């Protein structure tokens, strides 16, 4: 005797008589020892579809979000709600921020309409940071043309508010190449804003990927008026 299998147990049927007809009905408890009964295929029901209708703004859905910005000397809590449709044709954000003296506190409403060839965005805000108060209304338009491996974008708009008014414009182009073993991408972005002073920026970037390796580089040059940098970004501005 042995607990290990020694091979297959072969049994020979005494005769090769045909199976009885009709096929006997077996109990469902024997599955999967026996094949399950074939499914019953329902016939396809053809019917007329309704008349098409314009998508419009789509079905607006509601969502909410909560965020925290924490840094030395800065702390802010942001709470907001979003109204928008599933494809993003009309998106609206309502955002509030509570912060200490080093952070941005205030509120903002942002909306974007993407139902035209040119995307239109509007952003109204009020932000307080210590003794500094900023408020304003920004309006911008974005035009994008996409091809299989290339993207061209033009953007422009203006901001009216405190502490200053300004107008801005930007152009960007991105392209990429895809091969069997490697891929590469390049991009160039030029932007300028003008108000009391003029500031311009040029950014060039490129990346190369081979297998699991990726090498990327980015170069940026700013000219004209100086700009303030540092601190945590705030969603309300």
Protein architecture, described:
With 237 residues, the chain is mainly beta. An eleven-stranded antiparallel beta sheet has the order 1-2-3-4-5-6-7-8-9-10-11, with no helix packed on it. 7% of the residues are buried. The mean pLDDT is 87. The chain contains no helices and eleven strands. Helices cover 0% and strands 56% of the residues.
Supply the number of helical segments. 0
Oligomer: single chain
Rough shape? elongated
Biggest sheet descriptor: 11 strands, antiparallel
List the helices and strands and how they pair.
Layout: E1 61-71, E2 74-84, E3 90-99, E4 105-113, E5 118-129, E6 132-146, E7 150-162, E8 166-178, E9 182-194, E10 198-210, E11 213-224
How would you concisely characterize the structure shown here?
This protein is mainly beta. The chain is built from no helices and eleven strands. Strand 3 (90-99) and strand 4 form a beta hairpin.
Task: Based on the model shown, name its key terms.
single chain; 237 residues; mainly beta; 11-stranded antiparallel β-sheet; 11 strands
């Amino acid at each position: 005797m042995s607990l290990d299998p020694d091979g297959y147990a072969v049994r020979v049927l005494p005769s090769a008589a045909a199976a009885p007809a009709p096929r006997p009905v077996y109990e469902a408890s024997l599955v999967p020892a026996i094949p399950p009964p074939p499914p019953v295929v329902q016939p396809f029901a053809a019917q007329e579809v309704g008349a098409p209708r314009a998508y419009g703004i789509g079905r607006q859905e509601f969502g909410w979000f909560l965020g925290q910005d924490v840094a030395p000397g800065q702390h802010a809590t942001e709470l907001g709600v979003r109204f928008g449709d599933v494809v993003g044709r009309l998106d609206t954000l309502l955002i509030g921020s509570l912060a200490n003296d080093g952070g941005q506190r205030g509120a903002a409403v942002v909306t974007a309409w993407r139902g035209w060839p040119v995307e239109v965005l509007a952003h109204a805000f009020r932000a307080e940071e210590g003794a500094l108060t900023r408020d304003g209304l920004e309006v911008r338009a974005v035009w994008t043309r996409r091809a299989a491996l290339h993207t061209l974008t033009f953007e422009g708009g203006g901001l009216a508010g405190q502490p200053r008014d300004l107008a801005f414009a930007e152009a960007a182009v991105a392209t990429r190449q895809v091969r069997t073993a490697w891929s590469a991408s390049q991009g160039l972005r030029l932007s300028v804003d003008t108000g009391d002073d003029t500031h311009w920026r040029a950014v060039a970037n490129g990346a190369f990927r081979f297998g699991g390796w990726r090498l990327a580089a980015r170069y940026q040059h700013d000219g004209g008026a100086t700009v303030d940098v540092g601190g945590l970004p705030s969603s309300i501005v």
